[in-house]
Inverse folding.
């Protein structure tokens, strides 16, 4: 069936099959090996290498997977020989002059790529490390230099880190794989950033996604098939809630398998879809499923294995196994193991998968009562440092730059990236910066959006570790965000508004009494003069003995008294007016 | 010599810089105004803008400057303050129910225009504390409510956390006469004063809060309480009596507030210190709370603080104060019916 061989020190695997001659060269490097700031470097190298192969008659392709990279071809024995030597020659000396063009091609490819409903799942589970990196765009593209690429190929595209596979009627002679010396590169760690599982987070409306990472075993793959069947039956066939209700599995290089389930539904029925998905997972973990369903799932898996074997597709996975130091599994052996999967095995996997599950709920639906914990959506703490108020919502939003990190506060939401846990710092030439923490939290610092931030960007740049800095291409001035102040305006009230109480001197409570007393005394004295009760002739000026019964003096006194009483009357009138 | 007898009420009198600025504005030199105003610290800038805008000789200088350069935040703030000032002059200082419907309509028209100018200014320069400060006045005049006022204040505080002109406006809004509560006003005054650095003008909010409360409830509260006096003394120690207190624009009103609070709450020593600091300079606020004619209230409090001989050399200034206080009803009559 399949046998191993060695070419120029590179382990090889040949599988006899009926179809055309196919071959591939596999390397243990992929997206999960890239630092976030250099994201896209493997893909760029793959493109450059295949460019030299040029426009040929035979079919060839490159694959940049999360954990491996493959160059594959199909054609005559000569085609395969030429292809392999061409790839190796290109890897030894990359066509650097082609760099700007391939960057453009990759940018176009990225623009046409659609983000699936499950695009955010890896970031929520792994942050910006390991398998979480697969969810990010190729941030490194603009800033990658020839030196970066050469260093990358010298480390990863080497003899010790490669494997060759061939499938077809016969193994062609004279295959040469002329690679530089180098060592096998271990897998980077893929830690989870979820503090508690099972966890959930709110996603886009109209779709429910669930995934779990469990150790790889045949029972896990059977469980994925069973889950797919149950979801389809429950949500589409019986409930009529979903168009798509399915599950799949993706093996990972670290001996685990990612099981993903997805069910869509109209936004009006999304709560029922969520309940349906959660219900199916619950039933499977309790072992509540038909034997016939399990048998059908086992049969599906076996058919899949046989099909893959006939088409020669299995051999590439076997080569990856070889590369990872695992025993290459035999088809017959694997079929036997799959058929031996029991109800207890599947139930055990279902329980493990539930415990490790991450659920993306549609919109803001709660999943607390179903046993899922909300995944942390924001950082718990802020850095201490200078605050830069937002220019669009100064009251509630601000950026804070400190010596140990940066924070953006937007209302209730706090996002913090510490410099010592910074996965990438995207740097635009216009001063815009985006920091992405190892936990996947993003802090977007736009000098146009925060008051005084532009002057602080050079200081920020000094704090940033050089390794995490990713230079970005020039931005179109139109695409630089501009602040829009949220000032709730008013329509001027029509006509007189409700009474205002303006700050004005309030009357002294004793004033009225004082005015009355003044008035009474003045009037009494005047009356006393008029009636003759007081005789001016008997009054004497305080200074001397002169009586003041002359007319001018009398008039003067009367005038003073009248003035005082007028003043008192005026004060009283004012009090009444108030 | 004359200063010992005079009381200077003009808001520009204590600040030669402001006098020069008003002259520049009266001469129609907007570039000159803007140069001086924009070089000042944020608080001083807000106060200078208000001094220029409320001066009768400004005319349409700010309007023309704004037409020439719509992005000129200083012109926008000046124009808005001018509109508010003109509107309030039409409305008058009396209680709302004595203001005729026509006057109210005009008042609101002015304020709505001020709000429009503010909007245009704030969308271009949302970081201008002077614009936010006027925004607080407009929100109060148009009765936009406490939430709106708090939002505007928070925006202001994001750019300048100890901006006394804005803080004073918010304190007014938080008082019951503008729809707030005493507890909210008290809490704001205390927290803002606590947060202010030593020697800052903002600590005066404590004194202002007690003056407001005094105006409203002079018979309802036992006023000469020891704890209030202690709080006032502590506030004065942190601001006007602190070595870091700076006589930048606005200091006269701060010291006047403390002087009024000290005299009302019976702290003669404190009041005497404040009047010694002030010399002849009085401010309209807070003395208008005690008398329609601010200098009379100022003199009366000064007389009470100093006694007839006082801390001043010679008995003469005290006697002049006493005579003028006694004559103040007559002076008021003359002011009301002759000079005005």
């Amino acid at each position: 069936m399949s046998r191993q061989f060695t070419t120029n020190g590179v382990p090889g695997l040949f599988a006899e099959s009926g179809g055309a001659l196919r071959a591939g060269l596999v390397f243990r490097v992929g997206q999960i090996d890239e630092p976030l700031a250099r994201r896209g470097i493997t893909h760029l190298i793959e493109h450059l290498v295949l460019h030299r192969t040029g426009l040929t008659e035979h079919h060839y392709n490159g694959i940049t997977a999360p954990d491996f990279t493959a160059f594959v071809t199909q054609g005559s024995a000569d085609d395969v020989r030429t292809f392999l030597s061409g790839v190796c020659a290109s890897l030894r000396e990359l066509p650097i002059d082609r760099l700007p063009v391939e960057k453009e091609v990759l940018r176009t490819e990225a623009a046409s790529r659609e983000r699936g409903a499950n695009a955010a799942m890896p970031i929520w589970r792994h942050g910006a490390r390991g398998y979480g990196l697969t969810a990010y765009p190729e941030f490194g593209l603009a800033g990658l230099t020839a030196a970066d690429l050469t260093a990358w190929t010298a480390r990863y595209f080497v003899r010790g880190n490669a494997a060759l596979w061939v499938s077809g009627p016969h193994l062609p002679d004279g295959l040469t794989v002329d690679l530089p010396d180098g060592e096998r590169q271990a897998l980077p760690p893929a830690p989870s950033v979820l503090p508690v599982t099972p966890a959930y987070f709110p996603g886009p409306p109209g779709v429910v996604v669930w995934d779990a990472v469990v150790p790889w075993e045949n029972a896990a793959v059977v469980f994925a098939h069973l889950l797919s069947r149950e979801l389809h039956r429950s949500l589409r066939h019986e409930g009529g809630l979903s168009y798509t209700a399915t599950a799949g599995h993706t093996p990972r290089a670290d001996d685990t398998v990612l099981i993903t389930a997805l069910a869509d539904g109209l936004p009006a029925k999304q709560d029922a879809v969520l309940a349906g998905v959660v219900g199916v997972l619950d039933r499977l973990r309790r072992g509540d499923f038909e034997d016939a369903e399990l048998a059908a799932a086992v049969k599906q898996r076996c058919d899949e294995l046989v099909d893959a074997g006939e088409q020669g597709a299995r051999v590439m996975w076997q080569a990856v196994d070889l590369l990872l130091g695992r025993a290459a599994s035999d088809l017959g052996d694997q079929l036997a193991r799959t058929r031996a999967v029991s109800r207890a095995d599947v139930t055990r996997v279902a329980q493990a998968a539930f415990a490790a599950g991450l659920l993306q709920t549609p919109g803001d639906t709660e999943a607390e009562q179903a046993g899922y914990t909300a995944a942390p959506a924001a950082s718990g703490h802020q850095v201490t440092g200078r605050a830069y108020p937002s220019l669009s919502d100064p009251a509630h939003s601000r950026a804070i730059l400190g010596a140990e990190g940066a924070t953006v506060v937007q209302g209730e939401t706090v996002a913090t990236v510490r410099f010592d846990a910074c996965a990438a710092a995207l740097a635009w030439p216009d001063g815009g910066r985006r920091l992405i923490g190892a936990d996947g939290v993003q802090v977007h610092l736009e000098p146009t959006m925060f008051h005084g931030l532009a002057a602080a960007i050079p200081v920020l740049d000094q704090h940033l570790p050089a390794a995490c800095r990713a230079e970005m291409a020039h931005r179109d001035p139109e695409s630089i965000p501009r602040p829009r102040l949220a000032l709730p305006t008013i329509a001027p009230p029509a006509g007189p508004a409700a009474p205002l109480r303006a700050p004005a001197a309030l009357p002294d409570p004793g004033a009225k009494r004082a005015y009355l007393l003044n008035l009474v005394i003045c009037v009494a004295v005047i009356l006393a003069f008029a009636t003759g009760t007081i005789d001016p002739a008997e009054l004497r000026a305080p200074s001397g003995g002169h009586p003041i019964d002359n007319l001018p003096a009398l008039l003067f006194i009367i005038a003073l008294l009248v003035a005082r009483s007028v003043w008192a009357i005026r004060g009283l009138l004012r009090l009444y007016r108030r | 010599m004359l200063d010992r007898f005079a009381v200077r009420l003009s808001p520009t009198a204590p600040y030669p810089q402001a006098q020069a600025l008003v002259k520049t504005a009266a001469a129609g030199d907007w570039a000159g105004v803007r140069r001086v105003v924009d070089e000042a610290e944020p608080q001083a800038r807000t106060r200078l803008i208000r001094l220029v805008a409320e001066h009768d000789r400004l005319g349409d200088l700010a309007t023309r400057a704004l037409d020439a350069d719509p992005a000129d935040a200083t012109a926008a703030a000046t124009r808005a303050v001018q509109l508010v000032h003109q509107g309030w002059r039409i409305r008058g200082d009396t209680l709302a129910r004595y203001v005729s419907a026509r006057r109210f309509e005009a008042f609101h028209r002015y304020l709505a225009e001020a709000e429009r100018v503010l909007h245009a200014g704030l969308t271009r320069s949302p970081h201008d504390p002077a614009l936010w400060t006027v925004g607080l006045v407009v929100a109060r005049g148009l009765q936009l409510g406490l939430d709106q006022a708090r939002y505007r204040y928070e925006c202001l505080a994001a750019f300048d956390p100890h901006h006394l002109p804005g803080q004073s406006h918010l304190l007014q809004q938080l008082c019951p006469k503008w729809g707030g509560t005493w507890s909210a006003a008290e809490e704001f005054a205390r927290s803002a004063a606590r947060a202010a650095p030593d020697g800052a003008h903002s600590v005066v909010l404590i004194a202002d809060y007690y003056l407001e409360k005094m105006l409203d409830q002079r018979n309802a509260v036992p006023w000469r309480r020891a704890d209030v006096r202690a709080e006032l003394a502590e506030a004065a120690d942190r601001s006007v009596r602190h070595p870091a207190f700076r006589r930048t624009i606005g200091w006269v009103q701060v010291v006047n507030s403390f002087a009024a609070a000290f005299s009302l709450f019976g702290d003669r020593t404190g009041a005497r210190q404040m009047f010694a600091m002030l010399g002849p300079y009085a401010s309209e606020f807070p003395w208008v709370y005690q008398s329609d004619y601010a200098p009379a209230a100022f003199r009366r409090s000064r007389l009470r603080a100093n006694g007839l001989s006082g801390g001043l050399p010679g008995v003469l200034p005290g006697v002049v104060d006493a005579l003028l206080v006694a004559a103040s009803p007559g002076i008021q009559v003359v002011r009301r019916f002759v000079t005005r």
